[in-house]
Design goal:
Helices cover 65% and strands 4% of the residues. It is built from 29 helices and five strands. The protein has a five-stranded parallel sheet.
């Protein structure tokens, strides 16, 4: 095809529709990750579009003019992206200085790494502590990792294309295979570097493991250049393209509602599959002869798509700051998200009108002239608005800079050295040591067939405590009392004595781990396997390991659900692994700062209806009117609340066993 047959580059409005859907998906995911499980996949949509559009533009320029201006390209990128990014960084920093100073730690490093587009690597190197999430200290900048990856792409990829263009004869073929080869390497790296049960941040944030989404878009631009595509096509071709578009769009929606962000499948082909679905719909939307460009073009999508950058920038800070002030998120599952969305839209629209759009077209050579006119011109509505906005942005900038310069003096690791964090770390070490001793006892008891006798003795002791004959049991217990300080929490000496001999296995997250010392006081023979940030869908390998080692007692207590909801199938699988002979006690959750609290507790109740040996311990109802029992995160029991927590759990277990 001849160069002169190529049409002038056109604006594809359907891409705004894809951007709109992508940013909506990301926002919904951040608002409620349990319902919109795959909403985070909106990010690869942006990446595919970036790869396609940048490569398409470069090849068009090289084919029609024979050269490509890096200077003009990078200046356009800077004018398009930097004003909004800097405004967000400074505004968020100013808010932190004024209202949430616990986030000052590392602020200077966060701002600088974002300015130089290396924030994703800074996140990998430094990580965000789990305790920061539940200590009112979640970072409002976490989502900016993707901008760094795209920024690195804007810097490196044009150089690669120009190099290949000048050094090879089959230019487009070489660029195609280079794009495809690098994309496949990136895809394989994601699978290789991902390890089940290990924090996936390195894989999720890494440029090398995420670049395939951009590179597949680049590959598409080589074989499907927008300026070669003609509007007039055969009806059969149009229907085929529409069908391909439907396949791509349908696949995207399916995965957005089903692919969990920490599922093994995501990192071992799932995200690649989503990217390929996205490539299909991007290809069809780009073609003027297909119907998908028109389908995704409407005033609402155009409005959202044109503001998608700002919406993405401000959504996370708004959520973090809103939810730090309104802690009862679980009690308002609709009202609060609606309010957050309204605030996000309002702020994004403000900055789009007064920062992103005007500065994106501003001639910076006229900066001095602009300031002179600002202060020397006669007052009118436009000048007064500009003066007011300039004053406002100046104040915000100064306050933000104060925070950035104060940040080096702040202890950035405070959350990891809080009383809660220290307690959990201490308990983890002590539990590991105790587990070795208990594991040996459990194996010995199993080998000598003492476990059945122990459980029979326990049942007999507990049964006596609830009958007329309990007087003797109480007298026997009174001779050698144990843990007398726990009697005020509702436990009797008969129960405390019986608990001393109960073989029990505990499986949980940081809430259980934070009270591990108390659990093991009441149940000295408790094998406790609990870890920070544990979720239900991740627990099956650990349960299998405990079963394989013979460390799963006949009585099991589970404390999971704090960190996210789960599917009915997850609970059913756990109960299937436990078997019908074991008595399983599951503690429901008190996590009012998260949207999934009520869903988790409801799912547990329904699960107990399906499994006769599953018993729900209603910690939520018992504790909800006692905010003084919790740490600042309103999730983990504090030193006052911890005895109430583990004593209540023990009481429910012992009472239920006594009734059997």
């Amino acid at each position: 095809m001849q160069k002169n047959s190529r049409m002038k580059k056109r604006y594809i409005h359907g891409f705004d529709g894809l951007r709109a859907l992508a940013v909506i998906a990301v926002i919904l995911y951040h608002l409620n990750p349990d319902v919109f499980k795959g909403g985070y996949l909106g990010v690869p949509v942006f990446m595919v579009l970036s790869g396609y559009l940048i490569t398409d533009h470069m090849i068009l320029s090289l084919e029609t003019t024979g050269h490509f201006s890096f200077k003009q390209f990078w200046l356009r990128r800077i004018k398009r992206l930097y004003p909004a990014l800097l405004a967000m960084l400074l505004t968020t920093s100013a808010y932190i200085v004024l209202f949430q100073r616990n986030l000052l730690g590392n602020l200077h490093k966060i701002v600088i790494s974002n300015i130089f587009y290396v924030y994703n690597w800074w996140q990998i190197a430094n990580g965000q502590s789990y305790f920061e999430r539940f200590a009112n200290s979640e970072s409002p900048f976490t989502h900016l990792w993707t901008l760094s990856i795209e920024g690195q792409f804007y810097l490196i990829w044009p150089l690669i294309i120009l190099l290949l263009w000048r050094l090879t004869k089959k230019r487009k073929v070489t660029i195609f295979w280079t794009s495809l080869g690098l994309a496949l390497v990136s895809s394989v790296l994601m699978g290789l570097l991902y390890h089940p049960g290990v924090d996936p941040s390195r894989v999720y944030y890494g440029t090398d493991t995420r670049a395939f989404s951009i590179l597949f878009g680049c590959m598409l631009a080589v074989i499907w250049p927008s300026s070669y595509l003609k509007r007039n096509v055969l009806k059969s071709d149009r229907l085929i393209m529409d069908g391909i578009g439907l396949l791509g769009f349908g696949g995207m929606i399916w995965l957005m509602f089903s692919l969990n962000a920490q599922a093994d499948l995501l990192y071992r082909g799932g995200m690649v599959l989503f990217t390929l679905f996205t490539v299909l719909i991007v290809a069809v939307v780009a073609h003027p002869g297909a119907d998908w460009d028109r389908i995704l073009t409407n005033p609402v999508f155009n409005w959202i798509g044109s503001r998608s950058y700002g919406l993405y920038l401000y959504q996370f800070p708004v959520m973090i700051f809103f939810e730090s002030k309104f802690r009862n998120i679980a009690d308002h599952p609709i009202l609060y998200p609606v309010l957050e969305v309204l605030i996000i839209v309002a702020i994004s629209e403000f900055f789009y009108r007064f920062v992103e759009k005007p500065l994106g077209h501003f001639d910076y050579h006229q900066t001095i002239v602009w300031f002179k006119n600002l202060f020397q011109s006669h007052s009118n509505r436009r000048i007064n608005l500009q003066r007011g906005l300039t004053a406002l942005f100046t104040i915000v900038t100064v306050i933000g800079l104060v925070g950035i310069f104060q940040a080096p003096t702040v202890n950035a690791d405070a959350a990891n050295h809080s009383e809660l964090a220290t307690t959990i770390k201490k308990n983890a070490k002590k539990t590991d040591k105790e587990n070795k001793r208990i594991a040996a006892e459990m194996r010995s008891a199993r080998e000598e067939s003492k476990k059945a006798a122990s459980n029979a003795a326990l049942s007999k002791s507990l049964s006596k405590s609830s009958s007329i004959a309990s007087t003797k049991a109480e007298a026997d217990a009174a001779k050698n009392p144990v843990n007398q300080d726990l009697e005020k929490y509702g436990l009797t000496q008969v129960e405390l004595h019986a608990a001393q001999n109960l073989m029990i296995t505990g499986i949980g997250d940081s809430v259980m781990l934070g009270s591990a010392e108390g659990y093991q006081r009441i149940f000295p023979k408790m094998y406790l396997s609990a870890s920070v940030s544990e979720q239900v869908y991740q627990i099956m390998p650990r349960i299998k390991s405990i079963l394989d080692q013979g460390l799963m007692a006949q009585v099991v207590v589970i404390g999971l659900g704090t960190n996210g909801s789960f599917q009915d199938s997850d609970l059913d699988e756990i109960m299937s692994m436990m078997g019908s002979d074991r008595q399983v006690f599951w503690i429901n959750v008190h996590v009012p700062t998260r949207s999934w609290q009520n869903q988790v507790n409801s799912d547990l109740v329904n699960g107990a209806k399906r499994h006769a040996n599953l018993h729900i311990i209603d910690w939520y109802s018992y504790s909800k009117d006692h905010p003084d029992w919790f740490s600042g995160d309103n999730v983990h029991p504090n030193p006052t609340g911890s005895p109430y927590y583990y004593s209540f759990v023990a009481k429910q277990i012992l009472d239920t066993l006594a009734a059997k």
